[in-house]
Amino acid sequence: MTYAVLSLRGATKRFGGLVAVNNIDFDVRPGQVLGLIGPNGSGKSTTLNLISGALQPTTGEISLHGAAITNLRADKIAKRGISRTFQLVRLLPSMTVEQNIIAGAVFGHRRRWGAVAASEAAQLAERVGLGGKTHMNIEQLTYIDTKRVELARALASDPKVLLLDEWLAGLNPTELQVGIELIQSLRDEGRTIILVEHVMDAIRSLCDYCVVMSSGAKIAEGTPQDVLSNPEVIRAYLGDDNA
Ligand code: ADP
Ligand code: MG
User: Fold this and answer.
1) pLDDT of residue 8
2) Alpha-carbon distance 186 to 163, whole Å?
3) What digits encode the pLDDT tens for the residues 112-124?
4) Contacts of 116 (CB under 8 A, 6+ apart)
5) Best probe residue, ligand 1, of 24, 46, 213 (max atoms within 8 Å of C-beta)
6) What phi, psi does 22 have (nearest 5°)?
7) What is the arithmetic mean of pLDDT over 139-144?
8) Cβ pair 182, 130 in contact under 8 A
């Protein structure tokens, strides 16, 4: 059994009477791209929020390289090496692309400053397809470019685990292909990634392993091929009005 980079054990989040995440267990292995999938409202974003420390679990344990991070604040968890993008892009709107990317390097796991940070920001911008746009303001960017900035910012800290929350959502078919190739390139450099995603082509081509949630609970796990042909998983998706 390969060592787990990240483990969830009994992770549970209640919002009043609603159990948004119900007793979830899973492990993420080094270099794995784990797809966290399920219909809308099944608890995927809340699970990422528990991992990144945006929310504290009601009960359960989360560990990174065997050390508990369960009740650490989000900034402490970022310093330990977990970076994320948000389902709804969150950037510093009055700042430039470069400043936004550098913010990731300053607050993250591997801190960098000044000229080193700027030169790395330029490289990361190039990497995510924002070459030549580092001095643009966020307001001037197209939607896909704001997503690229968020990804570059998350990568700026050289995270041990990258959490992507529907990073491909809202892209047109051409952009989607570019986006899939970009995530593929991160995967090829051995990054450990949790991918929350609805785009089935992306799940099939990018994920080594999937965990499927429905109504807060884990209902299946396995290879994309296995889970996507699992009748219970198909039923969960078809039962979703928004699917
Ligand atoms: P998904 O990302 O799978 O679409 P979410 O994790 O966003 O699902 O939401 C799971 C459930 O938790 C939903 O019913 C949602 O309305 C609820 N929820 C999410 N965040 C909050 C919150 N901060 N307060 C109350 N309810 C929430
Ligand atoms: Mg979500």
Assistant:
1) 98
2) 12
3) 667 777 888 999 9
4) none
5) 46
6) -120, 95
7) 91
8) no
Residue whose structure tokens are 């929310």: 55
Ligand 1 center from residue 85 Cα (angstroms): 17
Going by CA atoms, what residue is nearest to atom 6 of ligand 1? 43
Q: Which ligand has the nearest atom to the CA of 37?
A: 1
Q: Is 160 exposed, middle or buried (0-12, 13-18, 19+ CB in 10 A)?
A: middle
Q: pTM for this one? A: 0.92
Question: Whole-number mean pLDDT of the chain?
Answer: 91
The residue whose C-alpha atom lies closest to atom 17 belonging to ligand 1 is 20
Residue-wise pLDDT for 142-183, tens only, equals: 989 999 999 999 998 889 999 999 999 989 999 999 999 999
Domain 1-81+193-243 has CATH 3.80.10.10: no
How much is the pLDDT for 17? Answer: 94
Tell me the average pLDDT across 23-27: 98
Given the structure tokens 């047109």, which residue do they identify? 172
Beta bridge partners of 21: 13
List all residues 6 or more positions away from 133 whose beta carbon is below 8 Å from its beta carbon.
97, 125, 141, 145
Crossing angle, helix 143-155 and helix 173-188, to 10 degrees?
Answer: 10
45 lines ligand 1 (CB under 6 A): yes
Quick check: CB of 172 below 6 Å from ligand 1? no
Determine the atom of ligand 1 nearest the C-alpha atom of 55. 23
**Residue 243: its pLDDT value, please?**
44
243 lines ligand 1 (CB under 6 A): no
41 lines ligand 1 (CB under 6 A): yes
